[in-house]
Amino acid sequence: MIHVYDATWRDKVATFLLRQSAFASLNGQTPEAFRDENLTDFEAEGTVSLVFEEGDVIAVADLLKEHPVDGSLWLGLFVVDERFHGTGVAQRLYEQLEQEYMRPFQTVFRLGVLPHNERAHHFWERQGYVYEKDSVTARGDQVHVMKKLVE
User: C-alpha angle with apex 89: 84 to 93, nearest 5 degrees?
Assistant: First the structure.
């Protein structure tokens, strides 16, 4: 089930984020810094933060429904519990996210992938995303911007 994040989810999401040490490492962060940055982002205005729950938090996502420059929907974060990597769970959760929270609002989706995150590149290509350009995040990270057009 997908829930819109609010303060009642804070402790469970914090615990979830701390467990994602591989993702934190890819971002060049400690698990604590990764947790703190993403909790701050989830509690900020302007995005829709989502919690995927199946008895426990198994994934989180953060969406910007309309980017102020390009007008597309940006998937700023999609993290599936590392225990489920390679099981098809991420595929299922992304499909649900796209159908329920992305397609009703936009037909152009973008996201940024760290250049050295090969696993993420392959995952997003399987979802229909293609490389668009290189960019730099607000944090100063180099990313490959990937884009998907839907009808």
Answer: 130
pTM of the model: 0.92
Are β-strands 48-53 and 57-64 bridged in parallel, bridged antiparallel, or unpaired? Answer: antiparallel
Please give the span between the terminal C-alpha atoms of the chain, in angstroms, as a whole number: 25
Reading the block at residue 142, the tokens are 């180099």
Amino acid (1-letter code) at residue 137: T
Cα torsion angle, 121, 125, 131, 136, sign:
negative
Task: Decide: 139 and 99 in contact? Cβ < 8 Å.
Answer: no
pLDDT digits (tens, 9 = 90+) for 3-33: 999 999 999 999 999 999 998 998 889 999 9
